[in-house]
Amino acid sequence: MSNPRVRFAPSPTGYLHIGGARTALFNWLFAKQNNGKFLLRIEDTDLERSKEKYVNQITDALKWLGLNWDEDIILQSKNNSRHQEMVSRMLKDGTAYKCFLQKDELDKLRRESEKKKEVFRVPRTYRDLPVEKEKELIKKGKSFTIRIKVPDGETEFNDLVYGSIKVQNKDLDDFIIARSDGSPTYNFVVAVDDADMKITHVVRGDDHLANTPKQILVYRALGLDEPIFAHLPMILGSDKKRLSKRHAATNVQEYKEKGFTPKVILNYLSLLGWNPDSDQEIFNENDLVKSFQFQQVQKKSAVFDEKKLLWISQQHLSEMNVRDLMNEIYVLSPGWGDGLEWDYLKEVVKLIKDRCKTIKEVATMSELFFTDKIDYDPDLLSKTFNSESIAIIKDFHTALNTVEDWSRVELENIFENIMEQHEVVIGKVMKPIRVALSGIPFGPGIFDLILLLGKDVCLRRLRHTLLEIE
Fold first, then answer.
1. Measured between alpha carbons, how far is 119 from 317 in angstroms, rounded to an integer?
2. Which pTM does this prediction carry?
3. CB 30 within 8 A of CB 290
4. pLDDT of residue 67
5. Residue ranges, the chain, pLDDT below 70
6. Helix, strand or coil for residue 336?
């Protein structure tokens, strides 16, 4: 396990998915924990779908998360000549062969197997074709793929998550390693690239489990060192189906824009499939590096729960110092608090941060301290105000107007007088005043809110509320 070399190998056909970020994190943690190297390979051989903008987005997202790679990025498309060289080597060594079966022939054979309810197997018609016959077919212009010669016996490997896995080679076709246009296939190029990068451990999603025996056969056919494999559980939505946009945001960029910090995302992703065997749920980067173990990665699928993500985010925000939190707000909203004193902004953030779950919520809630006039939600006004609560607002406005000592004690006295006068509990006083002053039915302590807004702002908002509801 010492000095491992691991890699994260996304395809630049879209934004960095949450599942991909979890895979990158587990690779990165394993490398850091064992004094290893975390490498990045961009698998961009699908030229039609691969886009430079997605390469940039993936690398930006990894940097934002703090998952920095240790060596230069490898672009798989740059390795084409190496891939071709290794295909030729397998043909020369007799571990692969040219197969002249055409697509229509294979389709027909597949349909016949389906009718007979038999498992379809690609026939090995051309596996031992004499060189002269092969040349004749090529001369006639017949296209061919290149298939590996799957040996007899079984392919076995020990997975760090799933344990020992055995596959009978008779259940595998002589799979294609190069298409009819000459382009090598995924299972072939991945094995070659991993070997060239000296990857010691391949950590990836368990949707790749079926690929692993095929890649091991490529390693063995080429005489390459095989890595150790670890396959991570699938991430599902709340309905136990594969995570998609109907469940939650699915790419890292969306969570950045929603106001989650990198620490929150890493903390939550670590718990998707990993059970630390303790009650601890809040982790920082150092905690994760020290604690993570593949033996504690579960085989069963992980379920993405956005409520749990929000809870974790809230715990991190409550522990965050105000200056760091303000810096995060500025990253998300560069114009936040323009024209206002730093000390005032600091007091605002200090007051509301424990009530918020994301950086965006802090930025949004803080806006109520930056303006005199609030745009009230008509539905909230209609639910909050009746003749009794309107009378309370009027009495509070009158009392506040005469206050000279702007203090918590004085405000508490005003509340007690209004409660006694109207014969109501404090909630009946607090709710309409909170809505009038903030435009929302929740938030920081009512006295802290009033004191920070200041007497003049409170009076203006109370008058504005009365104009809206009377």
1. 55
2. 0.91
3. no
4. 98
5. 1, 244-249
6. coil
